[in-house]
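Handoff note, outgoing to incoming analyst
You'll be picking up this chain. Sequence as last confirmed:
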Amino acid sequence: MSRVLLGFTPLVLARVLGLEKYGVYALVMSLVGVVAGTSGLGQNAALQKFLPEYAINNPARGHAILVASVQIVGTVILVVSAVLLFASHGIARSIYRDASLAGVFQFSILAVAATVLFNHFSSIIIGLHRITTLSFASVVRSAAFLIFGAGGAWFFGLYGALAGQVIAAVLALAILISETHSTAAWRLHPGDVTFAFRDVATEIMSFGIPALLAGVVVTFGNWWGSTMLVRHAGLPQLGLFGAAYSLMQVMLLLPSSLTVPAVSFLSETRAASGQQAFSDLVGNNLRLIWALTLPISFAFALFARNIMVLAFGNGFAPAAGLTSWMAFTALIIAINSQIGSAISSLGRMWQALAINAIWLTIFMPVSYVAVARTGALGLAVAYCISYVIFTVVVWKYSQIYLDVRYQRLAQLISNTAFVLVLSLFLARQVDGLVVVLAKLASLALLLVSEWLCVLRPEERRNVSSLMRRCFSDSMAE
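Most recent structure output, in case you need it:
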């Protein structure tokens, strides 16, 4: 529910702000993503790994890690905020060639601080296995962002939208802090043993630094793409790409929500049941996420123009072609996220950094050339091409170094190739009754193929049971 609301909010903001101001909003969010992603110093991944382990083996050290992580992130926020405050004018003039953006960047400091703290305490809650609380806090944040963000944008424009995001994060953060305090009190007892801050911080950073750098590589790539698009094509083109990118996030709502606790559960499976169980779990997760995401991406690719106009308005209709490319990119990202979770669960973050660096070395030159030639469309194509190559690298890595064996993927590979070719053909046709029926029929055929050929009998029974329960609950209401 929270991800649905969070994915719906940019659609509302785009309609309220308009193409150019939404381009500025997308630019600010790109900067916030980079700064917030680095300000956590990679502790989020470390907390999801260390807290569940120490809650069982050494609660006192787990408590020390929790306290030290909060102290570290608080200090970093203060330093980063001061730097961004004084550097905002230089960033606006030198990088984006628009001095008027300085005030927006300064105001974004609040969004950075709120985002860093929310992400940090979310990781604590995941590490303590309080997923229900995280889900509730995420719903509160998403609903508040929709209300305050849309309302703020309507009355106060861009600054109102940013203020709404800060208010939403603070409300959700209050819930997470309260739950952290109560849960840590009985799961992470301080005890009589004391730990030196330097010792605890070293342990966190030994895992966190490579995790930080691995995340920085991706966020820097996103920032690079947005910056190149603004410099070569202007803010309206960034607005179009921002709309397509937002729809990609909508496509990833369901698969990403199923991936959130993956690191903790994979880590426990490896420790408790061994390599074979770990390999089976990774392979099954990847197959199911692939099967889930493929129809979603295919539907968005088929009806890209209709969805874009309905969601953002006629002014964003030129972004339909971008959406088709980002739909396939969403599928690739969903698949890679499963392997990424497996890498993190084993603590191989330096290798994760090296793999992400390969993606960046592909993406930067491809996006530079593509954006200079075709603007926003070039950036969408660059994302797709770079992630396809990245997938080949990650796939081989997981087989050789993680000893993961994938099964029952032949039908999924065939289906993916088929729908890719079909979507490219149907996208060129003018929407008439016959074309619409052909699109719906091809989507239905894909679903039937996955149901019969991809899912195992027990998986079909589980899905059927889940659907019956959901239907019964809806009827009872």
